[in-house]
Structure of GPI-anchor transamidase:
Amino acid sequence: MNSKYLLLVVVVILSIFVVHGDANPEGFFTNSGHTNNWAVLVCTSRFWFNYRHIANTLSMYRTVKRLGIPDSNIILMLADDMACNPRNKKPAAVYDHPNQSVDLYGENVEVDYRGYEVTVENFIRLLTGRVSPDTPRSKRLLSDEKSNIFIYMTGHGGDEFLKFQDFDEISSYDIADAFAQMWEKKSSFTIVYDHIRYHQIFFMIDTCQANTMQNAFYSPNIISVGSSKKGQNSYSYLHDNALGVSVIDRFTYYNLKYLENVKPGSTQTLKDLFNSYNPALISSDPEVRSDLFPKNPDKVLISEFFGMEQNIELTTDPISLGPNNSTSLPDFHEHISLKEKLNSIESKVEHQDSKDVIHDFKANAFVSYLAGLILVAVIGVSAVFT
């Protein structure tokens, strides 16, 4: 008798999820609002005397990797190659401290845009997805409507502009319009699949008069911070006498100093990071702009932008197991054909965005798997009662 009740309980629990709505396995496992993280790290300066800007960017690269964002989700843009510069007394190495304890270049750095590839045009195309069809995956920002994106920029700038390569510049309005296109973007390859390109953006910039680069932003879900207000410089820090240059900027240094104490699983928030700023130490006045962001910084975990952690939560939101919002069970042969579907999907990857393909496959697999469980439970109940 107990076995009968046990099987009935199993059927009831599984039947909760046989309801009207779209199949959404991501929504089933999380309601955190985002399912993936990306980082776009940009150094816009050339020449040996701008060594610190390369070190700034590589230091931030090391931090986001340590906190869990893989190279596949990091776009690294370096306008010069300091590691191979003939003036570098430590060939193939870049350091952000005179004690040279940590080689930032190391053996696992993947530079996606290098040298003269780092241009305003390429940066805008990267953000908006308007890249050439033959652009490799490593040079694409394959984000979607559930992506949290951390964007870090460093170089020489001024009132509402940042220089690229000392011969071009990007304005606050250029970046603001790129963010607007990301929010409205209709993304498609060979299949029409509409989605915006971000869930939330955290924009950080370290340059002179950096706070002015936030002025023109108008798209939703963006929080930003700059190193210095209008009329202020952003200063270098930690001079290396052996190299003859400064190896890091003050604002970036104190951000990294705080982030070094952040571990995976930490409950520290962006507000905690912002509260750590000391203008006396930074020698400028950082400014946070959060009016476009839906949450207070004290409610936003640092790991939401600097890591790949996701909260796993069950939900009672309805999920449909049948096509066209039908609650009918899929044909049993769907289980047998999953391998064939996978083979078909693999051939499509060459012609369309792999993220869309994986999403479709996960949804089909999730539907078939859950339907199979329910079918087995129903058969079991029938066998017991007969």
Summary: The chain has two domains: 2-28+319-385, 35-306.
